[in-house]
Every structure is written in structure tokens, then in C-alpha cells.
Amino acid sequence: MTARDEGAGSGERPTPELYENVTCPFCGILCDDLEISRTGSTLKVLKNGCGRAHGGFERTLPPAKPMVKGKAVELPQAIEAAAALIKKAQLPLYGGVATDVDGVRAALSIADRTGGVIDHALSEGQFRNLKVLQSTGWIMSTLTEARNRADLFVIVGTDVHKLHGRFFERIVCTPESMFEDKPSKRTVVFIGEGLDTSAAKGPRIDEVITLPCKLDKVGDVLAALRARLRGTDLKALETTNEAASSTSDSHRPGFLSALRPSKRAAETTSPAGPQAIDGVSLADIDALAERCKNARYGVMVWAPPGLNFPNADLTVQQVSDVVKDLNLTTRFAGLSLGGNDGVVSGAAVGAWQTGYPLRLSYASGKPDYDIYRYSIGRMLAEKEGDVLVWVATISPEIVPPETNLPTIVLGTPGLKLKRTPDVFIPVGTPGVDHVGILVRCDNVVSLPLKNLKRAPLPRAADVLAAVEAAL
Amino acid sequence: MLIKLSGGKVYDPANSVNGEVRDVYVSDGKIVAPDSGARVDKEYDLKGRIVMAGAIDPHTHIGGGKVTIARTLMPEDHQIDQVAHTELTRAGTGHALPSTMITGYRYAEMGYTAGFEPAVLPANARQAHMELGDTPMIDKGGFVMLGSDDFMLRMISKKKDFELIKDYIAWTMHAAQAIAVKIVNPGGISAFKFNQRKLDLDERHPFYDLTPRDIVVTLARGLTELGVTHPVHVHGCNLGIPGNVESTLATIRAADGLPLHLTHIQFHSYDIEGDRHFSSGAARIAELVNKNPNVSIDVGQVLFGQTCTASGDSMRLYAGAKNADPKRWVVMDIECDAGCGVVPFRYRDKSFVHSLQWAIGLETFLLCEDPWRIFLTTDHPNGAPFFCYPHLIKLLMDRGFRQDMMLKVNPDALKYSSLPSLNREYSLYEIAILTRAGPARSLGLQDRGHLGPGASADITVYFDKADREAMFTTPELVFKNGELIVRDGKVIKVVQGATHVARPEYDKAVEKPLKDYFDRYHTMRMENFRLSDDEIIEDGRGEIIVQPTKARTQ
Prior knowledge:
The complex is a heterodimer. By secondary structure, chain A is an alpha/beta fold. Chain A has helices at 51-58, 75-88, 101-114, 123-133, 143-149, 160-163, 167-172, 218-229, 241-247, 256-259, 282-294, 313-326, 343-354, 376-381, 460-469, and strands spanning 17-22, 34-39, 42-47, 67-68, 71-72, 92-98, 117-118, 137-140, 152-156, 186-191, 205-211, 269-270, 273-274, 276-277, 280-281, 297-302, 331-336, 360-361, 368-369, 387-392, 407-411, 423-426, 436-439, 446-449. Chain A has three domains: 9-57, no CATH class; 65-122 and 341-469, Rossmann fold (3-Layer(aba) Sandwich); 128-338, Dimethylsulfoxide Reductase, domain 2. The termini of chain B are far apart. In chain B, strands 6, 9, 10, 11, 12, 13, 16, 20, 25 and 26 form a ten-stranded parallel sheet that branches. In chain B, strands 1, 2, 3, 4, 5, 21, 22, 23 and 24 form a nine-stranded mixed sheet that branches. At the A-B interface, α3, β8, α5, α13 and β19 of A face α1, α2, β7, β8 and α4 of B. β8 of chain A pairs parallel with β18 (329-334) of chain B, so a sheet runs across the interface.
């Protein structure tokens, strides 16, 4: 319990309790303008909720008790049982880590103490970004900056509206701008097929353009865009095809693959070279290049979980590269969304406490970072580690991978577990059952989370600290 | 419990004690006056030792978004210095961008008991304080950044009532839990977002009807009238550009007697003499600083080796990104509020430019006459990581050592600096001013940085070694609030320091236009923008100390 929980009173009143300026922890955008009422343990989103917010706040919690081997016990016994399992282990794995800043702090602390490995459930997506950050870096923007400044949004291969139901409402289609009394119109370009463009509408929106291609080809289109921005005549590249093909690595296609008029990359080839890149005509790419060059402040938007295909970091790399090129003459920036279930907080706290954004091992006593080796998904599949501690406090979908290892779960009640863990401890959701802090998807702003007093569940941070103390 | 530190040579400039052999008494975490009748519970025999207050770093980038971006950016820098946990201490990584716990341990192990993060973006203040909260051992505090935020620029350009501007400055200090205010490239971070690549002191902002001069003067005057002890902390225009000495001199003149602190002035002291149009402007700067008692500076000394530059100055860091080493960098535009740039850098002693930067910093130290107005910094990690401070102290105290080092740097660079002709050697008393008494006085830390009765018992005891680098690297004893936390340069007890803030008065009515502004333009509610005390201190993360401000004036 923290100081901020105190003095709130627990007596139920017949009239609903009203909460304003509530931060929603259910996606990485962390909208903080929700209004919510509570009657007993039932929450209702009154204002500014998207589907995900309604689903998250209004979910009915099944009754949940701490369990050891499927039998209900009191919390101290569950903590003892968890500590006993961890004490026996040589290499405990701390996975999930879907929690708030204090939860990550506590997870790092026990992982440090016990020589464990720590990884977030949604790391795979986040490393699509971090691989680019750690190899070339990037130029990025944040939500308020984009909301007020951008005149061109390029949505890169991500169904943003599906992932973040209020992104367009709050960032793109806003009625006002800081810099213009009569805000000018914005163009929205979607690169990729099957993306929901329906939210890009209203008086602020000028043109909505879609360049349809398969999502895993978006990087190729960006590579072609970059080539055109640099003045490269793609049609002239034909003669270099063979050299490019022979040196390419089929597992890690470079951007040259897009420029090769192979059957895969270019549907329409002529003796003069490709007319289209993965279904997007060169004329459309040229038109986009013009728009980008003429934008005053363009923003390329993606969400790492939306780029769910092999080597998606190369798509993020193209965004980084094309944005850097555009900044030679105008202003452009990337904006990464996603960041659900505390994955950005996990990387941030990991980086400030150890230098590394999780996927790290304390097995030697020192933090050791390896984004392949310390993937808990990989480790479980290859039977490494000897106990799994899984923390999932926000979404009930964040479930542990299949494993036969002894498993301890600190989870939100209703977590969709596939089997009964050795120890289950129900914990609160930050921003619903207790206060907390989460770092937003843009990795700059962090938001305070309120205690809406839905259920008297302990914080994951406190349970982890108690387990550590019991070791 | 009464502790007696007996027979050490005490350097306590705030109380004019210059190397006298004295006993120091500590009770309940405070320094107390000698009382011959009192029973001493614990005595330390410090014959032959040097005793000073715990050192204070007034400008060190140890917490907040850009520092953690830098940490994330540089895994290979951590791999050379991975630190295992012990019974007492947490694991982490060190070198140029130490993780938070290692930052705290290593500062304490070097005799420092406080460090101030000078670039807290209002929009990122919560994270900055979370990181400082995870930095044990030392006291800390933050300087909140203003001067490229839309609300301020809008008010200045529309010539709003000055009292309202002051209310906004004070409100922001409260909201971000800051002890001081910093300007970074006044207006320039904002201008860069409008695709302006350079903004000189008297150049018009591309959007707002104002110049950087207006911003500096507004904040200098605002903070003075609000009674905030630390003057406006200015990272000036044109960081790193040859010829920027002119805008730095003009900035000093622009203050026109108002209190002003110019930070990492080395990076702003470049002249354009010589074949390469790059030479030292340190002598010109020092001459004007010496003449203007309203001005204080810290140096931002460059020392050779791998580091990573990290700054709110997105405009200038973007311009410098072509020199990134290794070749990766981050620039961000942030929340219509601020920005940041993170560019890894390796200073090489064979490089003309880097050697000259090194010489300019040392010249600045040696030419500025009043040690109370100059503070010892490397602008960690921008000029060098903080663990280099003992080396820097030796460069200042030992002319022979300095000459030896001059033989190792690019010889051409020394032709464009007066460093080879400077013979000054700093005394221990002066070092105690630069690293303790001066920063404490400037920041308004009432009970830190000195050893008079009532002061917090933050005390560092050194062996008196001729090799000052060795001496300052490994103190024998460090006390924090009277507790022994370091012995022989190793942490023996982990403690949590305090967070220092200043809270000038403001009229709450400022929240009306602010709330409207947040609701219309921001992605965060004003209510959530403000940082509560509980967020900083909960879970045993120390206390908040509100340092006094003078009465508000008009």
C-alpha cells in the first residue's frame, strides 16, 4: 500500500463515486481524460472511453483467491509457496512483467537478488523498434507535438484505429492547433492494405490516400520512397539486379530487394525497369515523395505490434532512414504507438536501473543483455530455466507460454490461463485497483494512475517485494 | 549519539575555515558546536586527513528521458563495466552512462553527497524524478526547462502581464518539483520544430514575435522577482559553433546586472581565429565574467575518451549528429514543450578540435578569478563522465601534471589557447569552494556544502595524498546525515538522499488559462501534469526538502 491509497475510505455509498481525469492503462496511448463512475465494485466509463477502455474498466472480475496447487489459501501462504519454489531454482525466469513502474522495479529487484532472467511479454514487438534505436537511432516526435504540428501523417503498415481507438480523434482529427487560429487541413497517407481508414475524417482532414501493399512489403515501398527522395531513377537499376540478388541474404532482405524487378518485388516490369513496387505504382511513390518534401512537419506513425511479420525491424529501419533523409530539408519525425501492458515502462525502468531495456539476465550477478538469448519465449521452448514467475496485471490476455516448469502467476483475476499454475496470486490492475505510473508509448510522458477502488487486490510490486523478503 | 571527528585538517570555505586542524562534532545527523562536557559515543581519529563537506555536483545529467534514451542507445558502453550485486548493493552498469543505482554508489564513493539534474522537461518531470528516486546515497534535485515551451513563448510574444509570466514560472517549478529553472538554446528548440536550423541571440523566432534575448531576460528577471535563489541557468545559443563566444558575451551583457548562470560555458567559448577558424574565446569570456559579479558559470570540461552527449538542445545536437561516434543518434521533438538530442561521442587527444575544447575548459577555470562563481563540472556525460572529476581536480591543482598532459594533446590546438602560459594552481580551499560551498550557496541549499553547526552532516574525509587524483578518487570516509556510508572508497551502507525543491509563491489563478490550454491542445490533463509529493517519496524514497525562497517582488 502506498501513501496515496490512504485516507480514501473504503465504506461503500449507495451513490456512485465519480472519478475525473482518469488515466486509462489499457493501451500505450494512456488517455487521461476519462470519466468513470464506480458503484460498489462496478465501474462504468462515462466519458472518453474507447472500446478497449470500456472492456478494460468494465470487465467483471471473477472472484479470485490466492491458490497453491489449485487450492485456495491465504496470501501469506501463497507468498511462502512462491518463495519456496524460487529458492529451489537455479535460473528463475521473470516473464510477463505486464505491470506499472513500481511492478517493474520490484521484478528487477527480485530478479537481481535471485540471479534470474527478466523479459516482457510484449518484448518481441518492442525490439522491432529497439534494434533500430541501437543500430542507427532515429528522429521521433510525441503525441502532443504531432497533434498540434503535423500537416502530414503517414501511417506505416499498422491498423492504428484498431489498436488505439482514440488516436485519430485525439491526435489527427483535432479541431484546434496551437499554432493556427484556423487550423489548416491535414493529409493522411496509409501505406499497407486492409488498414481501417474510417477514423481519418472530419473538417481537419484533407486527403486520405492509401497505397495498398502487403504489410510485410511496406518497408520495400518506403525504401523506394527513399530512393526517389534521393533522386535515384529506379528504372535505371535494372542492370544491377543480378549483382544485388547474388549477394542478398534471403533471411534479412535489404532494401535493395524492393528495387529489384523480380517477380516478387515488382509486378509490372518493362525493359525500362519496374513500374510498381509490390503493387504500389512508382507514380504514387513519386507523389508521396513530393508530399513528404513539401510537408512542413510530417509524422510517420507505426505501432510495433502492428508490424507482426519476420524482420519487421527492417521496416522500422526504413522509417528511421527516410525520416532522417527528409530532415535535410524539412521537418519530419517518427511516432511509435503500441506500448500496451507496460512494455514501454518495462524497457524504461530496465534501462535506467541496469542500462538495458529488459531481456537481461542476472545469472552471473551482473546484468547481461542479449535480445535473442534472454527471450523467455525462446528459453521456455528450449527448456532453459527452472521456474517461471509470470506477472500480468493489466490485460487478461497476457498469458504465459506453454511450459512444464513450475509456474507462479501474479495475475489479474480472469487471466486466461491455459493450465493451473503451482501458485496463483490475484493482484490489482494499476489505475483501477491501486495507484501507479505508466510510461506512454512515445517514451517521454508518464502518467499517474488512480485508484478507482474496484477490488481490494494487492499491488504486484508489494507481492513481489513480499516474496523477495521471504526468500 | 555524538560522533567526534578528531584532528583532521578542515576546509570549510562557507565558514572561512582554511585548512585548520579542528574537531567536527555530529549529533542526530547534524553538525553541532563543540561541547566539552558532552559524552562522545564514537570518535574517529583523523590526524593527517583532509575534511570537507560532502561534494555537490550542480549540473549532472543523471535522470530523465534523454539519459535513459542514451543508456538504451549504448549497450556496448555498459558491457565494458557491468557491476555485480553484493549483499548491500544492486547490480547495474557503469562507465559513461551509469545506471541509477550505480550512479548513486559511485558518486558517494567519490565523496559526493548531492547531484542536480539540470534538464528536467516539464513533460518528462515524472520520469526524471522516478530515476532520481532510484538513485540512492545522494541528495538530488532538478532544474525545470522553460524557454522553448509554447505557453511561455506565447506569453512573451503577446506581452502578457509580467506577473502572470512569473506565476507560470513558479507554477511550473511546483508542477515539476524543481529547485531551479534552466533555459536550453532559448527559443531554439522550438524554432527547430519550425525547420529553423540556427537561432542567434537577436534573431527573430520563425513563429513567435520574440528573440532569444527576450526569453533570457524574461526568465532572469522573473526568477529574481520570484525570489528563487539559483539564477536562471542558461545553456546559451549556438552550442559548439565556432564564433559562439560573441553570443555568449552578448548574453552576459543582455542580463544587464540581473543574476545569470551560464552553464557548460566551455561549449560556448569558441572564437574563429587561425587557419581553421577555431580558437579559444575563454580569455574574453573570463574577462567579462570577472567584471560582472551577477554572473556565475560552470565549465563543462572536456576530457578524453568515449562518452555520449545528451542535451535538450535538439537543434544543435541534430547539427552535431554527423560526428556521432559510434554512428547512431536520437533527436526528439517533445510535446510542444521541449526536445532532446542524444549523440555518442569520443573525444580524442590527437584531434585538433577536441584538444582545443579541453584547453578552453582548463583556461576558463584558470582565468576566472572568483572561485565562488565557477563550479566544477564536465556536464556529465557531455564533456566526460563524472568519474573523471578527480583527474580534473589534479589538472587544476598540479601545474606539472597539466604540462605533462599538454604534451599528449594535439600540439596545434595549444597555439590557439592561452593555456600553456597559465601557471595558476588551485588550492584545496578553492577546490572546496568549487565543489561544495559555491554550488550550495548558488542553489540555495541552506544546510548543505558546509560544516558549521546546524549543517547536515554530509562529510567527506580524504587521505592527504600528494597525488590529488588518487586522493579525490578514494575518500577514506563519507558520512551522509551523520551515517558512515562509504569507507575506503566502497559503499558500506545504502541510504536514500533527499529531493531538494524551491517553491516560490504564485497566484493560483494561473491555473485557469493553463487548464484551458491543456484541455484544448495537450494530450495530458493539467491535473495529471503536476507531480505530487507522494509520487516522489513513497516506498521509502527519501524526503522532500523545500529550500527557502525570498519574498516575491515586482
